[in-house]
Design brief:
By secondary structure, the protein is mostly helical. Helix content is 80%, strand content 0%.
Length: 247
Amino acid sequence: MEFLDAFSAPQIAVAVMATLGAAFIRGLAGFGFGILLVPILALALSPVEAVLAINIMAGGLAFTEIRMILREAERSAFAIGALVVVGTGPGLWLLSITPPDIARLLIALVALSAFVAILVPQRGAQQPGVAATTATGLSAGVLTGFAAMPGPPVVPYYVGRAIPRAVAKASMVCIFGIAALAGVSSGAALGVLSTQLVVLGLALFPLVLLGNWLGSLAFGKVSDTVWRAFVGVVLGATAIAALSRLF
């Protein structure tokens, strides 16, 4: 593990604890991994390092859930995923030229927007139109590159509709997996993906699998009201914590 020598012990400790907690929430809710983990990890690593490390972990996790995706996901997820690929490169480039303190502030604000989005009342089951779907995909792509957070536009698209929870979860997992792979590919193309980050992401991956598995055990065992409230509280607390550390 000599490549991990580039990171200090406190940085690795923060990464371990935050990764396990975020993976549990992701397993329970189907989303929230990047939203929860980036603001915390970006306080220990640079924003670019945090985003790329999380994309490595999230991409690997998506490969373990392909069966669920193909069985349950709404077809719109694949269209949104393709649009995410288009928007990811520009988002990562924008992050690479943004001063770290400003980037951390913007990432915390993105996390806060996810908290607001989860409070929006549910709509009917009907799929949004082409314009809304396109805007969701492109904005999710930019946020994937800039903050490893495709969730803020994607979560309301699915969780905000009266569709089965299994369909919503599988659709979001599909998009987040595509987003993660696009983020890693963009990082490699832009020359900001280091060997140390790859090793760090792979080293933390067993914790991602463990946390996601524990969260999946709880999926479906709580009511929709409790589920939404729980996720909202966690999202809000994470955003506020990230903002308070900055100020």
